[in-house]
């Protein structure tokens, strides 16, 4: 009976601590969960089970590695916010899987996907013919974003947090020099002052960083 009470008590403590920790990690939609989030969540879950089952381990000792994992995730996230190259290394980058109605076979192989996988994702988006697709992009979360031909909502960021997105420039058939020149024409000479910049219908949408950001 005592063992049951102890187990229930430890379960309650573990539950409350995990709720607090995951609240600290911040809210994310299911589709936005990254590979790093998955790894941390799996490790935390395993460590939590050990803390509940092994009563010979104190709660403090059992949660020490959990706190370390959460700290590391937060630290990596902070570094990623300040350094896009590091963020890409840890989280990966979106990959074009379909361009103007044609499968990008090289990217398909690199991602270890089959044509059947892509077609399945297209059917989920109510797309039955590849020719309907202008672009299909595999996001970092593993979700396939599909943009149909004639879809005016399709736009890509050309500058994120002060850094030029050269991959996206290639997609829209523009160059880095073109972007710098065009932004200078409208008064933006320093990329580091731009939080977000996209280009659609020959117009820029730009948001400047707040002072001190």
TrEMBL record:
- Domain YetF C-terminal as annotated: residue spans: 82-199
Q: Where in the cell is it found?
A: Cell membrane
Show the stretches that span the lipid bilayer.
6-26, 33-50, 62-81
Q: Name one Pfam family in it.
A: DUF421
Q: What is this protein called?
A: Uncharacterized membrane protein YcaP, DUF421 family
GO cellular component annotations, sorted alphabetically?
A: plasma membrane
Query: Which membrane topology describes this protein?
Result: Multi-pass membrane protein
